[in-house]
Every structure is written in C-alpha cells, then in structure tokens.
C-alpha cells in the first residue's frame, strides 16, 4: 500500500485564491473511493499505487479544465512493500508510540 501527498496549484487564473480548484480536485478524490486526508497544504491519499496515480493524473488535469493556463503539482510518494499494514494511521501511530503517548 502507498501513502501519497499531493498539492495541485493552478497558475494564471487571475486570482490568488485556489480553494475553488482544491474543491474540484477533492471531488475527484472522493469519487475515487480512496482513503484520504485533506490538510491545509495538500491532500494525503492511501491505497494501491496504480489507483492513486490514476487519481493524481485526474487531479492535475482538473485546473486546466477549469481555465488555469499552468498547473504546478507536487507529489510525495511513500510506497512500502515489506509490510501489509502501511497506512496513514499506522505511520502516525508509530511516531506517537515513540513519543510515549497512547
């Protein structure tokens, strides 16, 4: 299973606001059925890498369809194959455990 962080930034839209574009990208994620977590600076996706990359491609294209003339997409991939329980929750629990918190 993979955990992927993505941030899609439309450029050339005539406004500094991006929430409209973020909402469109999040609709794509919701329709995909992937587990996700929206953060103030991006979205974290969890699932099989092939499924995630298909969603990432759709997310990257969405601002163009909405009129952006340039899109900058940042992707960070953590694809761990030696454990079956690799997940957002598992990663958080591992750090929390080391901090001595329940």
UniProtKB/TrEMBL annotation:
Belongs to the UPF0045 family. NCBIfam families: MTH1187 family thiamine-binding protein. It holds the Pfam family Thiamine_BP. Residues 4-95 form the Thiamine-binding protein domain. Signal peptide: none annotated. It comes from the Bacteria. This is Thiamine-binding protein domain-containing protein. It comes from Geoalkalibacter ferrihydriticus DSM 17813. Gene3D superfamilies: 3.30.70.930. One of its GO terms (cellular component) is cytosol.
């Amino acid at each position: 299973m993979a955990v992927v962080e993505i941030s899609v930034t439309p450029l050339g839209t005539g406004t500094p606001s991006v929430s409209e574009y973020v909402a469109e990208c999040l609709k794509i994620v919701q329709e995909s059925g992937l587990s996700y977590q929206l953060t103030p600076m991006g979205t974290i996706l969890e699932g099989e890498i092939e499924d995630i990359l298909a969603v990432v491609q759709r997310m990257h294209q969405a601002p163009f369809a909405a009129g952006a003339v340039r899109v900058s997409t940042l992707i960070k991939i953590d694809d761990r194959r030696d454990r079956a329980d690799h997940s957002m929750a598992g990663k958080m629990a591992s750090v929390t455990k080391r901090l001595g918190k329940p």
